[in-house]
Amino acid sequence: VSAGMSHEITTFRKDIETDGRHAVVTFSDNPEEDAQRRDFTMNALYADPAGQVLDPVGGLADLEARRVRFIGDPVDRIREDFLRILRFFRFHAWYGDAQAGLDADALAAISGNLDGLERLSKERVGAEMKKLFSAPDPAPAVAAMRHAGVLGRVLPGADDRYLAPLVHLENGVDPDAIRRLAIAGGNDVADRLRLSRKEARRLELLHSLMGSALPLDEIGYRHGAQIGRDVALLRAAMSGREVSADELEKAAFGAGQKFPVSAADLPDSYQGPALGRALKELEQRWIDSGFTLGKDDLIGSRG
């Protein structure tokens, strides 16, 4: 760590053998050899002890132009590790110039090697996709993935048409991969990307709520302000409109409410399942009132 910044130091290496997933390497003392085993030109920049930049493959110019380009023959680089297909789109989402488009040679090589994606572990695919969807604006890169046939291979059934509108609405809201994956949809996303249990539960919840008619204040109350806000953003993106301050306020308001009735407030005649049903009924009545009914109103309503 220097000046509060972490630095990783490694040795130069040279690939001896690759199988499309991992490489067998040997050590080297040559930065030019080391550069040839890397994926993109911007990933093959070096600095000597004096701080002089070494640029054996033209990565500095590509970095300045925000151009993601494979080193040498894109087909060779991809077949060394097919995860580089996903890394290409992830790097473009984070560092590329969306207006300039993606490298045509890279896209052609990717389209000819889609079967290699089937050889990747779900864990590696999931880690890469979450990084991609966490970019400030992944929509252009994801659209390019769709055109290249990659999106359908990695997430069958996914539809990115609402991703760009969602990113637009997220102004001031931190990027979130799970929120964005929810709007893209797809088949068996949690399993295909090996999401954690927490991530999978949140993805399923968002996906179910964004298509429901449940009011935002009730969503906020039952699931919290963040889920309520995310559902408001997702619904607005899917309907092609702006999200209103009133919608966000409703979600936050619901999250701050506390049900005024407890089991101790009901007569002793309510026991077991009957007690649970009574509390649930009163809670829903309270929610439907806009959280306005007090304890006495609710208990009195049961006669």
Give your account of this protein's structure.
This protein is mainly α and 303 residues long. It has a domain at 263-300. 52% of the residues lie in helices and 6% in strands. The protein has 17 helices and four strands. A hairpin with a 4-residue loop joins strand 1 and strand 2. The termini are far apart.
Put the structure in a nutshell.
This protein has 303 residues and is mainly alpha-helical.
Q: Helix proportion of residues, in percent?
A: 40-55%
What spatial form do the alpha-carbon principal axes imply? elongated
Provide the gyration radius in Å.
26 Å
How many DSSP-defined strands?
4
Essential attributes:
mainly alpha; two-stranded antiparallel sheet; single chain
Protein topology:
Layout: E1 12-18, E2 23-28, H1 31-36, E3 46-47, E4 53-54, H2 59-64, H3 74-80, H4 83-95, H5 104-111, H6 122-133, H7 139-148, H8 150-154, H9 163-169, H10 177-184, H11 189-192, H12 197-210, H13 216-223, H14 225-239, H15 245-255, H16 272-288, H17 295-300
Antiparallel strand pairs: 1-2, 3-4
Helix pairs in contact: 4-6, 4-7, 6-10, 9-14, 10-12, 12-14, 13-14, 13-15, 14-15
